[in-house]
Design brief:
The protein contains five helices and seven strands, in the order E-H-H-E-E-E-H-E-E-E-H-H. By secondary structure, it is of the alpha+beta class. Strands 1, 2, 3, 4, 5, 6 and 7 form a seven-stranded mixed sheet that branches. Strand 3 (62-70) and strand 4 (78-82) form a beta hairpin. The longest helix is centred in the C-terminal third of the chain and has 14 residues, at 170-183. It is globular.
């Protein structure tokens, strides 16, 4: 595993896409959406309090994971490895939630959402976790040290071989391995 540098650095200028979202690169993702109607439909859905979209963010064949420390008021006292993502706010689309959570947790604003991988049950009973394949050229920063102790890039091979062993949701791992294995053939 390769350790991320923590601490704040300057953010690049934020660019608006055709939808008016923050954090897109100069080429709007709307073009990607048109190529993938299933992903577009998933991203446009309005989430509910049990919807927790997750981003599998890759760079150089490595997946971004964070060491999250939950507390009893949020779920239960447990420390696990997870990918960026989180719970939808009231009347918030899944895409808006995904982008907001990525930025809040990692400081990453330059994110490309390429594909919808699938949906699994959450680690917390009753939650639904839609999973999206994303890429970035930015480094994760430790933005929420009260929730996360670190961010790391882990190779796809290590992830596929069960590392880290305390990953929050093995169902997410299974669908991600299946999805990425097709890409890396």
């Amino acid at each position: 595993m390769e350790r991320c540098q923590s601490g704040r650095m300057g953010h690049p200028a934020k660019v608006l896409c055709l939808h008016g979202h923050r954090g897109f690169e100069s080429l709007p993702l709307r073009q990607t959406h048109l190529l993938n109607p299933i992903m577009l439909k998933q991203l446009q859905k309005i989430g509910s309090p049990i919807t927790c979209p997750v981003a599998i963010i890759m760079r150089d064949r490595k997946i971004l994971i964070g060491h999250r420390h939950y507390t009893p008021d949020k779920w239960k006292k447990i420390s696990v490895w997870t990918c960026p993502g989180g719970r939808c706010d009231s009347r918030e689309s899944i895409e808006t939630t995904l982008r907001r959570e990525i930025e809040e947790e990692t400081g990453i604003t330059n994110i490309k959402i390429h594909d919808y991988i699938g949906e699994v049950a959450g680690a917390k009973k009753g939650d639904l976790v839609p999973v999206f394949f994303c890429t970035t050229n930015q480094e994760a920063k430790l933005i929420e040290p009260h929730k996360f102790s670190e961010w790391q890039w882990i190779s796809f091979e290590d992830f596929a071989n069960g590392l880290p062993n305390n990953f929050i949701n093995e169902d997410v791992r299974i669908i991600v391995i299946k999805f990425l294995s097709k890409m890396f053939k």
